[in-house]
Amino acid sequence: MEFVGYRRKTGKVGIRNHVLVFPTVVCSSEVARMISEKVPGTVYAIHGGGCGHVGEDKEQVIRTMLGICSHGNVASVLLVENGCELITPEVLIPDLEKIGQAYQVVSVQEDGGTPGCIEKGVKIARQMVEDASKLKKEQIPLSELILGLECGGSDAFSGLTANPALGVATDKLIAEGGTAIFSETTEMLGCENVLARRAVDEQVAKDIYHAIANAEKTAMSGGVDIRGTQPSPGNIEGGLSSIEEKSLGCIRKGGSTTIMQVVKYAEHPTREGLIIMDATAADVMNNTGLLAAGCHLIVFTSGRGTPVGANIAPVLKVSTNSVLYRKMEPNIDVNAGVIVDGEGTLESVGQEIFDKVVALANGELCKAETLGHREFDIHFRMIL
Fold it and tell me: Any residues with CB less than 8 A from the CB of 365 and at least 6 apart, and which?
């Protein structure tokens, strides 16, 4: 199978053709937003990072920024710096130039403060949009598509309807040679053995055990009870009773194929097929990590309902039950509740999700896109 997308000079492919206005630090986030809102055809990011990061945290933030700014869905990026931050454009530029990603830079401190920076940025962004509009789509094998898998606001139906149906769709994509990434490590607690049995080799099995054990160790070292967030109050109200119950439902969105690799947050996989990303369970931060790891779009299942989307990619929403679908139909693309209603099966809903994924890859918009949801947040552990 194929889809019609953009083949970039970077070697990546894209299903969207965004011009991204990206702040390198929280201090220039509002300026980036103001520039973007004056230039139709651009998208922007607002985040709280860029300064005070150290060690592995610094590496993770830089890796995330680079993954987003060089994403296949991004035709070009306008970097908006404040001018004195830790992660300046000069930190990112060598890698952007190495792969051939189009970029420009504006500075709040050097370009006349907020008004001057906006004026210069708007001029550059308009030219970027014009240049992007000239790019042509071409036929691309479905094997080059990377799908992100996310579940948030889970309920007792998540592991019975939406997640296993998404697992069916995941298996179908991987059968076409594509790649799928699922994450939310704290929502894998108690399922180590189940996942490790599916590892392609002993090293990947060890990586699975290590990632999950480390997530539990991190929570315990802080002297906190992870049961305050896993399951969350909303999960409990939705009918989930334990971490293990939530985990068993969560991992079903990964389907049934072999797990080929475990990667860090925002790290690009080097293998194709089913991948685990060791990452937070916080919805927007996790979505950002999946995109930075190269996912072209995300399928997001929910039993409680969440409207979030993403700034550079489609986020397809799947409800676990029909009550939620009726309440939030403007936000939900697929209703997996038909499975328990007796009006559908795991296979039929899985096929519907797969078909929607292919349609989005071919340019169809999901509801989060049409509603203007562009949520973005970088996960970082420490700021000094």
Answer: 314
216: pLDDT confidence band, cut at 50, 70 and 90? confident
Q: What pLDDT, in 10s, does the model give residues 146-157?
A: 999 999 888 889
Spatial CA neighbour of 215 closest among 244, 252, 187: 187
Question: Which of 118, 134, 150 finishes a domain?
Answer: 134
Same domain, residue pair 122 and 150:
no
Asked if the structure places residue 381 within a domain, the reply is no
The 10s digit of each residue's pLDDT in 231-278 is 556 555 655 455 656 677 789 999 999 999 999 999 999 999 999 999
Are residues 253 and 359 both part of a single domain? Answer: yes
Helices (H), the chain: 29-37, 55-69, 89-99, 113-133, 162-175, 192-196, 202-221, 233-237, 243-250, 283-292, 322-327, 338-341, 346-361, 367-370
- Are 196 and 102 in a shared domain? no
How confident is the model at residue 181, as a pLDDT?
98
Neighbour count for residue 190 (Cβ, 10 Å):
17
